């Protein structure tokens, strides 16, 4: 199932998804947006952020279950994505199921993350931020702290996994009563302004902006 007015930003750490969300939040149309991210601010999401910071350690398969639980709250919980869309918003999430399939598949294989996430709705548009791990790592080094996945070897593996995930959906993206998920590949090494223009050129075509 494809969920209308739901957009996901995906890419390895340092690809610029957060920067583009900030630009969208400053657009004149920002009141129509529900800008969100995973892990969420729910108790499960807070716990996951502690894991990402290296404060807590869990077995890789446990992390896969936790990310799926947090995602369920994100989609179906009170004030979550489904509810916000029902109220006339466009939901834009920094990370979604594709992150789990990329990051968790590196540490515990493809089958478990896919099984845990296959029933979640697909976004109407997936923006995939393509960037070389080397460039991404240079950006990450300017941050106040480095998360457990933000290491050179892991970024290399995750970049390969992301390509596998996106290619899988390009070939097998679901078609349903609400249409097919659109996948837009972005060169995340381009100027920030150019990337923002491309993103908006697709978003501006959504019916909500023509009503």
UniProtKB/TrEMBL annotation:
Residue ranges constituting the Thymidylate kinase-like domain according to the UniProt record: 9-170
EC number(s) stated in the UniProt entry for this protein: 2.7.4.9
Record-level GO cellular component terms: cytoplasm
Any GO molecular function: dTMP kinase activity
Biological processes per GO annotation: dTDP biosynthetic process; dTTP biosynthetic process; dUDP biosynthetic process
EC top class, as a word: transferase
Keywords: ATP-binding, Kinase, Nucleotide biosynthesis, Nucleotide-binding, Transferase
SUPFAM superfamilies listed in its UniProt record: P-loop containing nucleoside triphosphate hydrolases (SSF52540)
Reactions catalysed, as given in the entry: dTMP + ATP = dTDP + ADP
Function text: Phosphorylation of dTMP to form dTDP in both de novo and salvage pathways of dTTP synthesis.
Family assignment from sequence similarity: Belongs to the thymidylate kinase family.
Protein name: Thymidylate kinase
Organism: Treponema parvum
Biological classification of the source: Bacteria, Pseudomonadati, Spirochaetota, Spirochaetia, Spirochaetales
């Amino acid at each position: 199932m494809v969920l209308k007015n739901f957009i996901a930003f995906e890419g390895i750490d340092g690809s610029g998804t957060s920067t583009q969300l900030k630009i969208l939040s400053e657009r004149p149309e920002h009141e129509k947006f529900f800008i969100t991210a995973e892990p969420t601010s729910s108790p499960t999401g807070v716990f996951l952020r502690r894991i990402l910071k290296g404060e807590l350690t869990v077995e890789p398969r446990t992390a896969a279950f936790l990310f799926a639980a947090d995602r369920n709250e994100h989609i179906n919980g009170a004030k979550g994505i489904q509810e916000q869309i029902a109220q006339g918003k466009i939901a834009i999430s920094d990370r979604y199921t594709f992150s789990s399939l990329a990051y968790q598949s590196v540490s515990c294989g493809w089958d478990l993350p896919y099984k845990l996430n296959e029933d979640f709705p697909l976004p109407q548009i997936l923006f995939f931020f393509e960037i070389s791990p080397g460039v991404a790592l240079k950006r990450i080094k300017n941050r106040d702290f480095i998360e457990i996945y933000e290491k050179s070897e892991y970024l290399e593996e995750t970049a390969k996994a992301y390509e596998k995930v996106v290619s899988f959906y390009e070939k097998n993206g679901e078609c349903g009563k609400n249409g097919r998920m659109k996948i837009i590949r972005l060169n995340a090494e381009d100027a920030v302004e150019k990337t923002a223009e491309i993103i908006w050129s697709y978003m501006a075509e959504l019916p909500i902006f023509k009503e």
